[in-house]
Amino acid sequence: MRFSIPHLALGASLAVHSAAARAVVAVDEDPAAVQTRGLVGGLVGGALGTVLGLGDVLKQLDQTRDPGTILDILNGVKPRATPTSLPEVQETLQSIYGAATPTNLFTNVALQLGAGLGPQEGGKDLTSIIAELLDGENSVDNSNNPTNVSRPVYPSAAAGDAPFSVPEAQLRAAIQIPPSFTFGAKPPVLLVPGTWSYGGSVFGANLRKLLTGSPHADPVWLNVPGGMMRDAQVNSEYVAYAINYLSAVCGNNSNVTVVSWSQGGLDTQWAFTFWPSTRARVSSFLPVSPDFRGTVLANALCLSADSELGLGPCDPAVIQQEHASRYIETLRAAGGDSAYVPTTTLYSGFFDEIVQPQHGAEASAYLLDARGVGVVNVEAQSVCPPGSPGAGFYGHAGMLYHPLAYALVVDALAHGGRTGDVSRVDVAGLCSHYAAPGLGLEDVLATAGLIPVALGLMLTSPDKRLVEPPIMPYAKALPSRE
């Protein structure tokens, strides 16, 4: 039996969650403190869990650290509710993820699935969805063999570039170029996904949908083998190659605009840092929910049947995204804490359930501008008027449909691929919407469903480690701290 979640039952708690989250995070920017909050166990969304009848499920999830058991439990969660409006989606997501004290992400995902905010189209469970994920738009084996490559891009596009460890055929096959692509008649836009995801599904219901057909954008996307779960340094090779390849096949010195999500932003910055040739081929960089300083919540995703939460093995890219990882330290020490190209970062303050801290100048998404190329750091809740929908709850995936985020992407593209300019867009009008114009309830639900699918991919990924991959020789690793 399906039903809509009663607004009155949740209304009082939502206001408390929002105010508490702002109060706690605003005065507590210390990463160690944020990490402590992120590792606290216990049930979340108690009222919602009761409404959905998921009390026993939440208890089971809170008591296990075994990936297979967690996946089995999540597979058994069926939608108990049907969201009927965008305000209801935002309110429900806030009731799940908006608590002042972040808790077990797997119990949160169970609540999300039970509230009808997951990807269970046609009654499929997470295992079935993941099994079908690499078909079609998420293919990692695409045939890209145009003959009009105007300059060499492999084994090196220019002197000073890092060497590739991945064969060119594999790098090229990860780029999905739709049949409508004009090869330079319109500005190419490269869409780069995040951890536990592929470009087709990440952007299909949001930015790619909106940009397709635009006179200022011609989107293609990356599907990195392994779903961006393997060594982030290798993931960055796919980004570096795709930038130079797309620019070369489009001819006339075409430059690329890069739009990324999550780890995609971090790896693009790594590509700019160690493949200098890419910088001259990019007009604008627009990372959504990036983690340039990593996240203090990464450890909370490392688990096994024999460990406490946060102490188990993790996917290589997750360890590399820990706040104090060698990957993060190496990038920042090499100059990656500042932009190399005109950059507009787009992120949600306080409410990002994956990346923290994410507020003010200490936000992980915050980039400096030491090179004077132009940087605009856009924290949605600090730009949208207080009390407007756009200043409300948007999580890690929610920024992909945020109306201000899309407007600034379009603004950057329409103005020669520079930075987006808040002064050129109708902030008040945009922030009065819950989602970018052109997106509806189905699109928002599909985007929100990226988080459960990502967690499902994490639970099934085979390559788990206790330490991050060694820094590549070209990156001039920092001296040992031991």
From TrEMBL:
Residues 1-21 form the signal peptide. It comes from the Eukaryota. Keywords: Signal. InterPro entries: AB_hydrolase_fold, Stereospecific_Lipase. PANTHER family: LIPASE B (PTHR37574). This is Lipase B. It comes from Apiospora aurea.
